[in-house]
Amino acid sequence: VNPQIKAIESIPHSITLGECLKDGPVTQVFHCVFEGIKAVIRLDLPISQTLGLDRFSEVELLKSMEVLADTPKILFAAPENGVLVWQYIPGVTLEDETTRPIKIASSIGALLGNLHKLNAPAFLPVFSSFMDHYRDLLAAEMNHPIIHKGFALFDSLSNDQAFMVLSHNDINPGNVLRSEKLFIMDWEYASLNHPYFDLASSIENFAFNYEQIKEFIQSYETNGVAVDLAELVLWREFSLYLSFFWLMIIEKYATISETEKAWMVKLENRLSQAKG
């Protein structure tokens, strides 16, 4: 029996599956009706365990953040079975550039500024624990020059543990929903981390241009923290290495799509030209 079907059948509630919203290598996401409420359900695929995703911490984090209304309301969670159901929020993700606010860079900067000001729950994992796990998963490939350089860069950056914040760690257009305001979705990689990682990955994943980067940083800095631009450049480079690591793990332990293969080739070409 398909493990995802078993997971759905284990839910002690009335649930009707709708259209598939996402069929990725790590999870499947569907529209659904949960006890008569319009909702969304996420089902883990086996590699979610390989990646070391802590579903229990994710659920606790989302519940603790519900009062802020910047995250979806959890209706049901069975982290032991890789099941999460949240209330449907009408809106569109920012993957389609036509759906993005005119001042998208400023909006994302303000969103992250507010996020990083929150008190981070003590139960959250530390980002370096993810990196240690990735290092183990890629141990056989450690002679690959890009992997070696990427981990070396992280080791140099992680020496700065001065101020870690609640970080989403996967800010990208598909994880930001535009409704009556912007909502951040998919908190599965959230941890305590240096704030520059969220900034760096946002710049790269939204492909902000020079003017947008200035707007993004100015908006973020209204939270009272000045951004070191030289250090941010290094975190931007590291964010690319991390994407490459993730794709290498997907290729090694699961099934990688043609789109992801093309992304990996593009990253490999870019990182092969990086200095250092």
From TrEMBL:
Give GO terms for biological process. Answer: phosphatidylethanolamine biosynthetic process
Q: Name one Pfam family in it.
A: Choline_kinase
Stated name of the protein: Aminoglycoside phosphotransferase domain-containing protein
**What cellular component terms from Gene Ontology apply here?**
cytoplasm
Q: Which InterPro entries match?
A: Kinase-like_dom_sf
Q: What is an example of a GO molecular function annotated in this UniProt entry?
A: ethanolamine kinase activity
Name the Gene3D superfamilies on file.
Answer: 3.90.1200.10
